[in-house]
Amino acid sequence: MARKKEYNFVVTLKHPPYRLYNAIGILLCLMATTAEVVGLLYSGFATIMWINVGLVAFIIIYMIVTLVFFNNKKYVAGFGWPLFAGALLWFFAPLRNLVISLSYVLAAFLEMQLKFPQEIGFDEEEVAFNHFPSKNYSWDEIQNVILKDNIITIDFKNNRIFQKETETETKPELEKEFNDFCRQQLSLSAVI
């Protein structure tokens, strides 16, 4: 089993507001449940369709619990599981539409990737961004890195600058230790 790489420092970036993504996820879930209820009403209700009723109930309960109890700034509400349940609804009878079902699976996957906490790992070899798709930069591609006032700034040698706010407040001692580490890695890469 492959071990995850451990970094000397990991900086977690502040997540953006996901209102648009949440609205799209909610609308997709509502479309699936509405289509399923209409499909069940217009079809001869078979005993196998109790699975569909359970999936509809799961989607509705998940959305209500998420929106009522976890709708705050500290928690990132995810709708990946209800989207996957919606994909199953579109896969089973009475809806049975494979293209829409696969698009719901894709939406669930993309939603989970978009809301994955963005982190930057720093070690002696590289600077690694964990977002999708992940990016790794060697220290010789970077001109400067600084963490100051909860803002990380990475200045690349190709005249590109990355600057984002960090998720939590950083203590001055840790900020100094991080900046010293980066300065040391940059000076070592300049010598090589």
Structural notes for this entry:
It is built from 5 helices and 7 strands; from the N terminus they run E-H-H-H-H-E-E-E-E-E-E-H. It is of the alpha+beta class. Helix 1 packs antiparallel against helix 2 (50-69) and helix 2 (50-69) packs antiparallel against helix 3 (80-91). The chain is elongated, with a radius of gyration of 23 Å.
Q: How many β-strands, per DSSP?
A: 7
Question: What is the approximate shape?
Answer: elongated
Which stretches of 5+ consecutive residues score pLDDT under 50? none
Helix content: 40-55%
N-end to C-end Cα span? 33 Å
The total of helices stands at 5
Instruction: Report mean pLDDT, rounded to a whole number.
Output: 88
Sheet/helix structural class: alpha+beta
Report the major sheet: 4 strands, antiparallel
Secondary-structure blueprint:
Blueprint: E1 9-12, H1 19-42, H2 50-69, H3 80-91, H4 98-114, E2 119-122, E3 126-129, E4 135-138, E5 142-148, E6 151-156, E7 161-165, H5 172-191
Antiparallel strand pairs: 1-2, 2-3, 3-4, 5-6, 6-7
Helix pairs in contact: 1-2, 1-3, 2-3, 3-4
Entry keywords:
192 residues, elongated, four-stranded antiparallel β-sheet, alpha+beta, 7 strands, 48% helix
Q: Quick recap of the structure?
A:
This protein has helices spanning 19-42, 50-69, 80-91, 98-114, 172-191, and strands at 9-12, 119-122, 126-129, 135-138, 142-148, 151-156, 161-165. The protein is an alpha+beta fold and 192 residues long. The longest helix has 24 residues, at 19-42.
